[in-house]
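Holo model, iron/sulfur cluster. Inputs:
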Amino acid sequence: MKVIALVSGGLDSTLAARLIKDQGLEVIALNFKTPFCLCDRGKSPGCVSYSRKFSEELGMEFKVFSLGEEFLQIIENPKHGYGSNLNPCIDCRILKLRRAKEFMREAGASFIVTGEVIGQRPMSQHRQALNMIDKESGLEGFVLRPLSAQLLEETLPEKEGWVKREKLLNFNGRSRKPQMDLAEEFNIKDYPCPAGGCLLTDTEFSKKVKDLIKHSELSLNNIELLKAGRYFRFSRDAKLVVGRNERENARLENLAQEGDILFSPPEIAGPTALGRGVFSEELIKFSAEIVCRYCDLNGTHQATIAYRKAGTVPSGESPCLVVTAVDDNRISSVRIG
Ligand code: SF4
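Output:
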């Protein structure tokens, strides 16, 4: 019998998939990638890499589904509202389960396994929310949550004897200790997302996304911009993102679209910045002053900042401005997050 297990790269879903695999079922691991995955940032191997490695080690087929535009739609107007920040967890779970249901049918699988633990998250993991999520995704009775199954109503796979309920668990609440103990028992190490979650649970990042929503600018490219540096809003029509390291500087170059302006210091070390929208001469100068603020000024307050249209290569021909670094008060009046 085939089963679909949603794996996030977090410990809970890893344990849940393992418990079902250990009951002798054929498990297909399914990872959903959204533009807000935390593991994309920095040094961790990432949820996808970890989930793939774990799945391969256990001999499970592994699939990745990307959620893009449809995910943005639920952020803008989530039927079930937000969590503590801009995280629309209930709608997010419903969307993922609906996609998983389609895949379950295509793959000829019989039910779905998730790593949810009852009472662990205030918004989406209490009994009532779990029931509603199953109902709205059209999966009542078909979602097995092995870590808390003994505390939940029997699902179809338990009733039918496809899995042994007595081998499932009764984890409950916010403590991570039972999961840690089980991970040790299974010799599971180095999972990248101990408690799951995504960028939308972050207060500062949520402020930036709210700014995009307010200006009707929520798009995948703009979300990638938010992830690629410090974010400044000048007006309804103009914003600037300033890279914080070489990786982000390169990312901004890649994300630039026709009409964008790229700023960088040609003579000293400093960031790349991307301006998007309507930029007057005054705004170009202000942007250059902001870029100057983050340059390696070596004790001075001034720098030459070049700017050019996206799609052109930096050259001696690019126009330049000699500017003084903007002060902290002025910068905080336009910085978001
Ligand atoms: S934390 Fe993010 S990824 Fe997780 S359920 Fe909530 S919105 Fe979805």
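Residues 87-89, 92-93, 124, 196-198, 200-201 surround iron/sulfur cluster (CB under 6 Å). The CA atoms of residues 148 and 281 lie 60 Å apart.
Archived with the compound record.
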